[in-house]
Structures are given as structure tokens and as C-alpha cells.
């Protein structure tokens, strides 16, 4: 009886894995570990969240720089990681001013490093290729370091850690809603040329879950009225969806399925945080408007 039940569980799990292209059990384990680490750092010691964010930014910047190098763009990885990570403490201790100044300084640092590399004969290339390399460096700094640092900037505010937690919860709930609804009812592709697995049915599930989560979080976590919760849920739904599609477009352009394989069941760090990047900036803007 037990062996028959185990066989049924394995068969169901294999079907889900085949349909989603992921190891569901491993994905849940890794996601739970990351979620608990995030929750502990946000609730108990804000500085721990800064360190947590710094580690995520380091791995994510390295992943994206490596993927772009694989595609033929010569981005100096170590300088890019150093510059990206520097934005995190700057955002925490010096707030928006530090975030902007250090991001711009990081872009200049990475660009200068690439230009200095041209002194070596083995690194010399055409002016067009150099411009592409410089543009790729700017992209990594803005897409990863600048956007991700908004959660740090938000957390540094008085009571901002609860807004950070709220926006991340909505992102996760949106993802779960899309996954469950799409897996059960998905028939109509949402963006077949960018992300074939996304469906309008999944988006509808994500919308319902996001609005419900936004309302509950507004009432019980960030002390806001219901209408703010609805706006909060809808805005984060939109940015999370755009963030996910943007990363899918990047991977499609690079010809890869995952940015890396460092997180079992998820792919890479960027595959896990893609929906949170634009949402971080949106969450900070909503905090400034309503808090």
C-alpha cells in the first residue's frame, strides 16, 4: 500500500517536472532556504539584510556578466561584481544619494577597466566591439546593482523593512498563483515568442493572488487601507510579470535556458530574483507615495 502510494507520488512529481522543466522538490527546498534567510535578516537585523542582498547581487552580477561573455561580449567580471556590490552598502548607509553616486561611479570604473584592458594586444578589438562591451557593462550595473539596491534603500527607511517584505511576498504569491493556475488551466500563450510556458490563465491566477495578498498585507503588515493594498498588488503584479518576461527575453537572445545552474531547481540566482528587480523600484516608489 505504501509502495503504491510512493509510486503515485513519484509519477505525479515526474509529470510536474516534465511540464515545468524543473525539479519541483529541489526548487521548493532551495526556495524555502532562501526565504527563511531573507525573513530572518529583514525582521531581526537590517544590516543582515544588507549582507544578504550584497551576496545575491554578487552572484547575480557574476552570472549575467558570464552569460554575456559567453555571448561574445567582453565584460570584466571581477570589477563588475565589485562595482555592483558596492552599490548595496552605499544605498543602505547613504540612501538615494549614495545609490546614485556609487552606481554612476561603478559604471565609470567598469568602463575604465575595459578601456585599460585595450593596452594589452590580446584584448584589442574594433571600436564597435568596445562600445558593445561598454554598453553591456552599463546594462549589468543598472539591471542588477541599481534595481536590486532599491530593496536595500527601502529597508533602510523607518519601517521600510515591512514594505520590502510585503513586496517580496506579493512577488512570490504572484509566481505561485501563475504557476498553479497555468499548470491547471493554461491553454492560451501570453508571450509565445518570449516565454512559451506563460499563459493568460496563469496571469489571471497571478492577478487574483497578487490583489488578495496586497490587500491582506496592506491591512496587517504595512498599515494601509484596502484601496492602497489593491494598488500595491496590481503594481507589483505588473512589474513582476515584466521582470520575468525581460529575463526570458535576455535568455532567449543569448540562446540559453537558465542564466546558470547554481540553484538546483531554479537555474541561477537571476532566474530566482528576476521578478523582484523592477518590483523593488516600484515598491520604493509606492512607499514614498503612501507611507
From TrEMBL:
GO molecular function: phosphatidate cytidylyltransferase activity
Keywords: Cell membrane, Lipid biosynthesis, Lipid metabolism, Membrane, Nucleotidyltransferase, Phospholipid biosynthesis, Phospholipid metabolism, Transferase, Transmembrane, Transmembrane helix
Source species: Rhodoglobus vestalii
Annotated protein name in UniProt: Phosphatidate cytidylyltransferase
Lineage: Bacteria, Bacillati, Actinomycetota, Actinomycetes, Micrococcales
Subcellular location: Cell membrane
Pfam family of the protein (one): CTP_transf_1
GO cellular component, as recorded: plasma membrane
Catalytic activity: a 1,2-diacyl-sn-glycero-3-phosphate + CTP + H(+) = a CDP-1,2-diacyl-sn-glycerol + diphosphate
Protein family membership: Belongs to the CDS family.
Biological-process GO terms, alphabetical: CDP-diacylglycerol biosynthetic process
E.C. numbers: 2.7.7.41
Listed pathway(s): Lipid metabolism; Phospholipid metabolism; CDP-diacylglycerol biosynthesis; CDP-diacylglycerol from sn-glycerol 3-phosphate: step 3/3
Membrane topology: Multi-pass membrane protein
Amino acid at each position: 500500500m505504501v509502495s503504491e502510494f510512493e509510486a503515485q507520488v513519484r509519477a505525479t512529481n515526474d509529470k510536474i517536472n516534465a511540464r515545468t522543466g524543473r525539479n519541483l522538490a529541489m526548487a521548493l527546498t532551495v526556495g524555502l532556504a532562501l526565504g527563511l534567510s531573507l525573513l530572518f535578516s529583514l525582521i531581526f537585523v537590517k544590516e543582515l539584510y544588507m549582507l544578504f542582498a550584497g551576496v545575491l547581487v554578487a552572484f547575480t552580477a557574476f552570472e549575467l556578466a558570464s552569460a554575456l561573455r559567453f555571448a561574445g561580449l567582453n565584460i570584466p567580471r571581477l570589477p563588475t561584481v565589485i562595482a555592483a556590490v558596492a552599490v548595496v552598502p552605499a544605498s543602505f548607509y547613504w540612501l538615494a544619494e549614495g545609490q546614485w553616486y556609487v552606481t554612476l561611479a561603478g559604471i565609470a570604473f567598469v568602463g575604465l577597466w575595459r578601456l585599460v584592458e585595450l593596452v594589452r594586444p590580446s584584448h584589442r578589438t574594433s571600436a564597435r566591439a568596445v562600445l558593445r562591451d561598454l554598453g553591456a557593462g552599463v546594462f549589468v550595473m543598472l539591471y542588477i546593482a541599481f534595481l536590486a539596491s532599491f530593496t536595500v534603500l527601502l529597508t533602510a527607511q523607518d519601517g521600510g523593512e515591512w514594505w520590502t517584505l510585503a513586496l517580496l511576498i506579493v512577488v512570490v504569491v504572484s509566481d505561485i498563483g501563475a504557476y498553479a493556475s497555468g499548470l491547471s488551466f493554461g491553454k492560451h500563450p501570453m508571450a509565445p515568442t518570449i516565454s512559451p510556458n506563460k499563459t493568460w490563465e496563469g496571469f489571471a491566477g497571478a492577478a487574483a493572488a497578487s490583489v488578495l495578498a496586497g490587500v491582506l498585507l496592506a491591512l496587517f503588515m504595512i498599515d494601509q487601507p484596502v484601496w492602497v493594498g489593491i494598488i500595491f498588488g496590481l503594481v507589483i503584479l505588473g512589474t513582476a510579470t515584466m521582470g520575468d518576461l525581460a529575463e526570458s527575453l535576455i535568455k532567449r537572445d543569448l540562446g540559453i535556458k537558465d542564466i546558470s545552474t547554481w540553484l538546483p531547481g531554479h537555474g541561477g540566482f537571476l532566474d530566482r530574483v528576476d521578478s523582484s528587480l523592477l518590483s523593488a523600484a516600484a515598491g520604493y516608489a509606492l512607499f514614498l507615495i503612501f507611507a
